[in-house]
């Protein structure tokens, strides 16, 4: 009887993703050996990104019908969640991207702040996150960005951390 109740409730726990996207398969995740070190395979993270006290979730998703996937965030907004697609060009057959938490109340020096290039007028030399953000980067390669919630813009923002 208990087994039937559990089976009947499984759809309630099923994750609904944006149209055309799904969780990556074990085969897709296994293309990058460094994923073995992470319980989430560096493909999903959960934290309160917008400071509302509720868990939000970031996912590296694969495409259902094509090779391109996406970086998507399921963000709480009151009693519901809203999807944000932050990168629509995630390619599971080339560069393997990784997600890791970026801690709040810590100063992070940006790429221009480190002298990789001259900072433009709107480019900060450093950032200090108010809420938890996350790193979005290829494994063991340059190109890392920190993505964080900008409450004023009511949207996610990203800053290049290295080239």
Shape: globular
User: Element order, helices and strands?
Assistant: HEHEEEEEEEEEE
The span between the termini is 57 Å
The count of β-strands is: 11
Give the number of helices. 2
What share of the residues lie within helices? under 10%
Class by alpha and beta content: mainly beta
The biggest beta sheet reads: 5 strands, antiparallel
Oligomer: single chain
Strand content: 35-45%
Report what the structure shows.
It is a single chain. The chain has helices at 2-13, 26-29; strands at residues 21-22, 44-47, 56-63, 68-77, 80-91, 97-102, 107-109, 126-128, 133-138, 145-150, 155-160. With 163 residues, it is mainly beta. Strands 1, 2, 3, 4 and 5 form a 5-stranded antiparallel sheet that branches. The termini are far apart. Residues 1-14 have low confidence and may be disordered.
Q: What is the gist of this entry?
A:
This protein is mainly β and 163 residues long. Helices cover 10% and strands 40% of the residues. 24% of the residues are buried.
Search tags:
single chain; 163 residues; mainly beta; five-stranded antiparallel β-sheet; four-stranded antiparallel β-sheet; 2 helices; 11 strands; globular
Write the layout of secondary structure elements.
Layout: H1 2-13, E1 21-22, H2 26-29, E2 44-47, E3 56-63, E4 68-77, E5 80-91, E6 97-102, E7 107-109, E8 126-128, E9 133-138, E10 145-150, E11 155-160
Antiparallel strand pairs: 1-3, 2-3, 3-4, 4-5, 6-9, 7-8, 9-10, 10-11
